[in-house]
Amino acid sequence: MMEERRGRDLPEHQPPPLTGKLTLAVERRWHPIAFHGGVLTLYTLLAIVVSWPLAPSFTSAMIGAVGGVDAYQCAWNLWWVADSLRQGQLPFTTALLYYPYGIDLFWQTLQFSQGVAALPITLLLGPLAGFNWTVLTSFVFGGYVTFLFARRVTGHTQAALVAGMIFAFSPYHMQKMVDGGLEVTAIQWLPCYCFALYMLLERPSWQRSLLSGALLLWVSLGSWYYGLFCVLTTACASLVWLLVPGSVDAPGGQQQRWRWPDAKRWISAVWGVTPLIWWGLVLAPRIIGLTAQPDALWDMRSIQADRSADLMDFFLPNPLHPLWGEALRAAREQLYPQAIIWNVSLGWVGLAFGLVGVLAAWGHARRWLALLLLTMLLAMGPTLRMFGHNTGLPLPFALIQNLPGIRSAQRPSHLAVIASLMLAILAAYGFAWLIQRLPTRSLRLAITAGALGLILAFDTYAGPMQLVSRTVDPFYATMPPPPAAAPGRPSGAVMPLPLYLNINRSENLTTQMVHHWPILGGYVARPPTYTFARYTPGVRELEGQLPPLDDVVSPGWPESGQRGLAAYAIRYITFDLTSDKDSYFARVRHHAELLQLGQPIFADTQLEVYEVPQTWPVGPIGYLGAGWQDLEQAPPYRWRWMGEQAELQLFNPQDYPVRATIEFLAASYQQDRPLDLRLDTNILAQINIPTDGPQMQHLSFLLEPGEHRVHLSAPATPDGQRSNMPISVRVFALSFRFTELGKGL
């Protein structure tokens, strides 16, 4: 009874003391989770709206211009990253493309960071879902981290919400989503790095330096463009923190005036560049390795000016908006015909709030304004362009254009993404100043909602998105698993026709995600030198070249073609009939008939599939490589001229060496000439080739397993009858013979 009375004596609205403490603790614990969950939910709903109808087609379609060429390439990247990591391998090289050589993907648009982040989705729901997950999270996570960044800088929550919207839902980001290039759509890592860099500059420490360096590497592995831009931003930020005073002096609250940097600012600036040291140390082996791959990073300086931002482009209204976008694009086309990659609009709402921030909070905003102007200047490339006119006025980018890495960047305009982030911070200052003058909390919330709606309706919205979805023929799902690869030996491949070499087409990657076999060719941002289809017998004819029916090489066609396909273990040849290339396939079918490839093992309205007969013998082969001129003949002779250099290509598919014998009937042009022969880097012989008549030459050597080249060189003389083309030796007959010495020799 006493306990009940004591309970009744407590006020009805007040819980027992212990219960009250627990409730208060629970509320304090869950309030931040609910708050941040609400921010993430808000950005998620907005992402679904601007990408609609992507969400209902999450696993079956993607957003991507030009028929999804880049979108499906990016989906392949996610698939490959997930598949290789699932097998416990790093994905930076692959044997699946450009068979039989494979390709190094490290400097390609691999999107490793996006692939790791989307790994569970890709493995569970497929690469299209992984692609769409990355697109949506680029808005959600990009907006959320910018929100955290802006709240830390300004101390204002509602203004930070607006900042996250301005950055993550900018016209630039919408354009990248429409284009389908996931490498540049995934902007979410940029505010992560810039936030960490800001914290390092404000309060330097080794921990923050290492974190910033790790995030810089993470950004780079997601996009080399954005990694390079973050490197430039790091240098700019350190310079700004050195030269531009901070916000206010603590004692009197007076704004700092410019003065010579003191020790504190020098220390911050030095700490600010330390992430570049960690980044460079980690990448040093790869950077040094570029010296052995001169074509890995192309020289893009000749096109950088055309892919730089015009000054007016930053201040255009949303060029994708369904109400005025078409008229805006047409008007700009008149000023700057055939311009590409020009949508770097910062958004009018963001610019308005940013201007208020600069005027109302100058002491706080000036460093961010300096960074905004610097990144805009760099985005405009080597010279100033205004309203479609190149003024010729040099800009800061011209000072760094020749640096390694910078000269390989073809899109300076994409630095607008960093400018957009700096504008978001300025806009947060401006919006905070505006709503702090409102009398009630409810009015401030209403104005915040209105600002978000205004950004969505004016700067972001681009209408319903156009989705792309490719149908893969059911045959590919019925193919057996590819054979396991032996080290240094081809394991088997599919030759998809058309090969689309050095053409922006990703259909062959789409089907590969289903059948998992290595393929000839491929589609990457920086195609390698790939002469396999140009010279290999069987491959070159099925790819569309005319069969050399009466060449100087023996064995000749079609035996050479059969030997080539069998030696390189090419198992299937597929015809993509949806490519609208009827005349091409008519020619290829004729070559397949001459090759005695047989009837297709599968055929429908979309696809024909041929299987290379397993009865064709597998053995070493030899054939002509680079440096040989077209076949000439004057009965009873036929011949090919070589210039100063020429190559013979040899391939031994066995796992043991064989005896190779090369015999050739040759004569020199005008005078006797020495002919040097090297096997790869080893000298084989020097033979004197007379001019008075063709003589038979004989060469024998041990051929190890794998692919090799015999390099021929001789002094050449320009020939007036051939437009002064230099010639040296002509070969009338060339034969390859291979004698097996026995396994294990």
Quick tags:
745 residues, five-stranded antiparallel sheet, alpha+beta, 23 strands, disordered N terminus, Jelly Rolls, elongated
Radius of gyration from CA coordinates: 32 Å
Number of alpha- plus pi-helical segments: 27
The percentage of residues in β strands lies in: 15-25%
Number of strands: 23
Tell me, briefly, the overall form.
elongated
Structural class: alpha+beta
Q: Name the average pLDDT.
A: 89
Uncertain ranges: 1-20, 249-253
Helical residues, percent = 40-55%
Q: Major beta sheet, specifics?
A: 6 strands, mixed
The overall number of domains is 3
Distance between the termini: 102 Å
Question: Can you walk me through this structure?
Answer:
The protein is an alpha+beta fold and 745 residues long. The chain folds into three domains: 419 residues, no CATH class; 137 residues, no CATH class; 120 residues, Jelly Rolls. Helices cover 45% and strands 16% of the residues. It is built from 27 helices and 23 strands. The strands form seven sheets. Strands 8, 13, 14, 16, 19 and 23 form a six-stranded mixed sheet that branches. Strands 12-15-20-17-18 form a five-stranded antiparallel sheet. A four-stranded mixed sheet has the order 7-9-11-10. Strand 13 and strand 14 form a beta hairpin. The protein is elongated, with a radius of gyration of 32 Å. The N terminus is likely disordered.
Brief characterization of the structure:
The chain has about 750 residues and is α+β, with helices and mostly antiparallel strands. The strands form 7 sheets. Strands 8, 13, 14, 16, 19 and 23 form a 6-stranded mixed β-sheet that branches. A 5-stranded antiparallel β-sheet has the order 12-15-20-17-18.
